[in-house]
Amino acid sequence: VWRHGDYFMHVNGAAERLDWDQVRYRTKLVRIAHFEYVGERDTYDLEVEGPHHNFVANGIVTHNSVNEYSGRYSLMPLLFYSPEQDQFSLQSATSNQGRAPGSVSPEFYREAMRRWEDVRSRAADDYGWLVGENVARELARIDLPLSTYTQWYWKIDLHNLLHFLTLRVDDHAQWEIQEYGRVMAGMVKRVAPLSYEAWVDYQVMGDKLSGGEIAALSRLVAADADGVAARTGAGLTNADLARLGLSGREIRELKEKLVPREVPDYDLDLTQMRDPQDVAADMDKAVPEVDRG
């Protein structure tokens, strides 16, 4: 519990006041006895009308808890992401931010990869030439493609991390960030198993219902002091759901919510883990060599 610059450790009901040096050298996991309200603090949301260059946007994000590898100060590693063929799909017909089921033909995939490689090769060559001519790094980087790998350091509390993961392990998220989300969830499971278990139960396996969805379900089941029971002969067609005010998308989503789900397994496969030094070496090798004579 933190209050007015003082540090308190509550163990088994007893409060012990600690100075900062004691906090630094007595760090260990303890069970929280209670939280103490210490007042409100103002927070602000800033909105700046766009459009903006994405490297400017990244500079803003850097000052909001994420510290990204900066192409202003350092040479960029020229490593680029390419999706495997089974993850290369056409645009979804039902979502503006998703992929259609299934993959494209091998010929189509190879042609797309060839075009991407042409763009990346030219961008990498141009970047190397620009930094070799001592053009400012903050300018030399601006035409590197979005597929360029980056790295960052992120500070976040557990509550907001779990909220982030709820969105990013969801099937509606982009597949690539789902992959990262699953690994991060596995990390949480190892360091905060009780919070992880509650998160899976309430957030991953749970769902929210709109007023229209609750109205629909109340026509199918009845609740009283003895429990919950199905209403005799109850049933709802798509037309019935529409008359209750649900749109076509809401009807589809309600049906998806009622499909039983398998409990996800986010256990980490440590055999797939790479040594951080090996990753750092790969990044270093991908940095262009600059010879200014």
Provide an overview of this structure.
- The protein has 293 residues and is mainly α.
- Among the domains are: 65-143, no CATH class; 211-257, no CATH class.
- 41% of the residues lie in helices and 9% in strands.
- The longest helix has 27 residues, at 106-132.
- It is extended.
- The N and C termini lie far apart (58 Å).
- The model is unreliable at 1-11 (pLDDT under 50).
Overview in brief:
The protein contains eleven helices and seven strands. The protein is mainly α.
Radius of gyration: 26 Å
Arithmetic mean of pLDDT: 84
- Work out the helicity level: 40-55%
Quantity of strands, as a count: 7
Order of helices and strands: EEEHHEHHEHHHHEEHHH
Main sheet strand line-up: 1-2-3
Distance between the ends: 58 Å
How would you sum up the major sheet? 3 strands, antiparallel
Shape: extended
What count of helical segments does DSSP give? Answer: 11
Percentage of β-strand residues: 5-15%
Helix and strand composition category:
mainly alpha
- Given as residue ranges, the uncertain stretches (5+ residues, pLDDT < 50) are 1-11
What is the strand and helix layout of this fold?
Layout: E1 2-3, E2 6-11, E3 14-18, H1 20-25, H2 54-62, E4 66-68, H3 106-132, H4 137-140, E5 152-154, H5 158-168, H6 175-191, H7 193-204, H8 211-218, E6 221-224, E7 227-230, H9 238-243, H10 248-257, H11 276-285
Antiparallel strand pairs: 1-2, 2-3, 4-5, 6-7
